[in-house]
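ok here's Clavaminate synthase-like protein:
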Amino acid sequence: MAPIAQAVTVSLQDLQNGTVASETLYEAFGPDSLGILVVKDVPPQFAGLRNHVLSYSSYLGNLPVSELNKLENEKAKYLTGWSRGKETLKNGQVDTLKGSFYANCAFYVDPALSCAAPTEQFNTDNFPEYLSPNIWPDEVTLPGFKESFEDLCRLIIDTAVLVARACDRFAETEIAGYPGGYLERVVKTSTTTKARLLHYFPEDPTNQPAPVAMSDAAANTNDPDEDDWCATHLDHGCLTGLTSAMFVDESRAGSNPLVASPEIEPKDQPSSSAKGSNSHLIPLDELDASPDPAAGLYIKSRTGQTVHVRIPRDCIAFQTGEALERITGGKFKAVPHFVRGARAALSEGRIARNTLAVFTQPNLGEEVDMEQHITFGEFARGIVAKNTVS
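and the structure:
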């Protein structure tokens, strides 16, 4: 089993005060780092929002196929709305082990926006992946989902702005010609930031075996090919904000517990059963930990070692992406990482893994490679084409 690595941790207060040392940032994001920074002491509302949104991931993943089909956007290569089995993993394998819901976070800049505005170079015809409006489940199907999702994303992006500010202070002293306040401006003003709510479906040992059978010998090594749930990859944005994963036993309420008539309670009125615009689905019971200790996030360190990284439940983690590596001339390296779900052989019940990733990304016309004058839109288009089922 891969060793557990301790990520560099800073407090939100230190980020706000600008007192995070350059050495700390270099330890978190530099060439010899894990490329991940954990922020503790986040606002108190984070815990409730995380619990609600990650519960919605199971509710969403268990909707009837007819409802999920309404949330698909093939033209946008599934980078808005719901998808499952539309992404290719290693060796061209189609990924059916997880489902995901993508949403543009342009609402962070302007609540009236559902996606970035088209430009002369990028428009809805030639780049719908980033210029298609969000597709939300209706309020009857998943009441409160859109509101909770947006609120949690805003909180994560607010924190990302502070991390970006700290990165700028470091880069301004270490990188010749680095424009002051560049990354903070990019994160704060981007209308192309995307969020991805992920639902790793429970593994069914009788009907849905894991695609990669792991031997006892492999289980006790740092085999880099153990990425059977989400192939090793780099995020292509700047900073990726991550919640810790929620593990849920979806068998506790029956054979199909989350679909039929989900129980609804109005926000802040737990004893009522009325429905309305302030209604929210009841959060699901979260397991104290994964029944499979090997489940979770894995990072391939700069030395080539595969390590298991655990994010505390009350913290937000930030990983570096390829755009940031390009922007900083390689001073901050993008993080190769993958995810493993809970193996059915080690779990009782039907264990799902839910998490949220927020990819803070430059606007489409923003240069991310200042030597080759490559814009983020040009860079992202190639990545999207490579990762989607044709």
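+1. The first strand starts at residue 4 and ends at 5.
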